[in-house]
């Protein structure tokens, strides 16, 4: 059993306050460090102007100064491939690879060892950029994001690249949103405020908790209503699935990082939708010893009615991970 799972925070968690300029980049780092987390993850395009261009020497010096000041470590940079930057032109693989290389150099400059590769990146592109990543000692992690799971056909194609190349620089980054046992309450309630039928919403939530296949739920709701908002609620069951945490076990040696998704951390420091105790227990039993990085995304579902407090939500998530034996 591994009790060496480390704790990090994705600064994406503070997106509400950062966007509204209530928190600076340093404020986000300080808030993450205050939870006891030792790792920092960023969405470079959100946090660093000009990303993926290598930042100025002054910024790099300031960045590492913050890392030392708050006693944290750069862990992961989240990259994107913007295939449609030019109207009417879709990137070729070669253009995507060149963009990807810029992210690798960006990550290297700021001390990150891991790049979260956006889920829609093809295995062909990753295989082409792998030698460059290996030369710079940067690990690439394909994001295993709902509705996909680690054993889905798309992920198996990436696994084939891992196996065929024998690389140590390509693996999986599961997102905890793939273990959604109860549909997120904050998301469902927001859809009701936007006009969804409360009874249909209740039905969809009940079906999801029973483990009814999403396609059946969608079909039944289509007979109840032809309103787009009601169908969108039904689709939550398809796009926010629950997969048995044991599905991670065959790939445990290929998991290089984990996104600790949370949409509603309760006062008792448990997540409303995701059974973290079950998932973390599987990870510990089978030897995962990387980071779990808090990724709070509930802000968008409550900002119309409540004051968002991302700092408190992240703190509760970190307390939960600590209680479960992570980073202690």
UniProtKB/TrEMBL annotation:
Signal peptide: none
Pfam (any one): AP_endonuc_2
All copies of domain Xylose isomerase-like TIM barrel, residue ranges: 29-322
Sequence intervals crossing the membrane: none
InterPro entries linked to this entry: IolE/XylAMocC-like, Xyl_isomerase-like_sf, Xyl_isomerase-like_TIM-brl
PANTHER family: HYDROXYPYRUVATE ISOMERASE
Protein name listed in UniProt: TIM barrel protein
Biological source species: Arcicella rigui
